[in-house]
Amino acid sequence: MAIERNNQSNLVRDIFGNPFRPVLFSPSWRTTTATTLVARMYESREFGAMPILADALQDAGCDSADVLDHCRGPGPHVRGCWVVDLVLGKERAGNSSGTP
Asked: Does the predicted model carry a pTM greater than 0.70?
């Protein structure tokens, strides 16, 4: 039961992030490399390239530890991941596009 709860908690964190630390996502971080990578992960439902996404975002000027650490973290990562949605331009409560 505890293992299942832990797994569910990890999925919730992947989808919603930390509601107490909203992230401002700069539109300038949405480079062709980042958006292409995210689109491929989203369509294939294979998120093994998340660390590569972190590198692409960092190359684009992203200095958000929350974003970069999430991408480089162990996951799990799923469709609906808050970072993936931000790169795709999907707005969500608590996180938004804007100037960080």
From this structure: yes
The sign one gets for the Cα dihedral 87, 93, 97, 100 is negative
Low-confidence ranges of the chain (pLDDT < 70): 6-7, 9-18, 91-100
Show the tokens assigned to 89: 């331009």
pLDDT tens-digit series, residues 9-29:
655 665 666 677 788 889 999
CA distances from 32 to 35, 56, 87 (A): 5, 9, 10
The DSSP secondary-structure symbol of 96 reads E
* Lookup: tokens for 16: 């919603």
Which tokens is 5 given? 């709860």
8 by Cβ neighbours in 10 Å (0-12 / 13-18 / 19+) ranks as exposed
Termini Cα distance of the chain:
40
